[in-house]
Write a structure and sequence with these properties.
The chain is of the alpha+beta class. It is 28% helix and 36% strand.
Length: 162
């Protein structure tokens, strides 16, 4: 697997799985009915942000991540990131590889920490992955996320000092 900068040409491969994941409404705080133009603007970042894709040897997009300062001004030294793995490639280490890549990027860019603002507590695979990469749950906003089948569930804020 290769992780590289995302290009405009990658968007047609990203959009179908990003759209399906968001429409399912189980893991992202994005509007479930997000349109393609809005999603592209939110996902395909420019400097100081960055968007990458993980691709296999044939060039197929397996997953993607975006990374950026979590805040502006006096808190711009804290990074954040978001990740999406095409479900057909789940369980193959794509999320872990993207997570490791993002952490390495944040360290190299001089960020002092990384904060995830909204990790749905029922997304146990993601929670376990981030904890295995050194993130801690700093707090959980009770009933902070409305899950389509489980009702109101907690929304974790996760953090790692770099």
């Amino acid at each position: 697997m290769l992780i590289r900068e995302a290009t405009a040409g990658d968007w047609p491969a990203i959009w179908p799985f990003l759209h399906a994941i968001v429409a399912a409404g189980e893991t992202y705080t994005y509007p479930r009915d997000i349109d393609e133009a809005t999603a592209r603007e939110m996902w395909m970042l420019t400097v100081p942000g960055r968007t990458v894709v993980a691709v296999d040897e044939s060039g197929a997009v397996l997953g993607t991540a975006k990374m950026n300062p979590n805040h502006m001004g006096g808190a711009a030294h804290i990074a954040s990131a978001s990740f999406m793995v095409d479900p057909q490639y789940g369980g193959r280490g794509v999320g872990r590889a993207l997570g490791e890549h993002v952490l390495a990027w944040a360290r190299a860019e001089g960020y002092r920490a990384m904060q995830f603002n909204a990790v749905v507590e029922t997304n146990t695979g993601a929670v376990a992955l981030w904890q295995s990469l050194g993130f801690q749950i700093m707090t959980t906003l009770p009933e902070g996320f409305r899950h389509p089948t489980k009702g109101y569930v907690g929304l974790h804020i996760m953090y790692q000092q770099l």
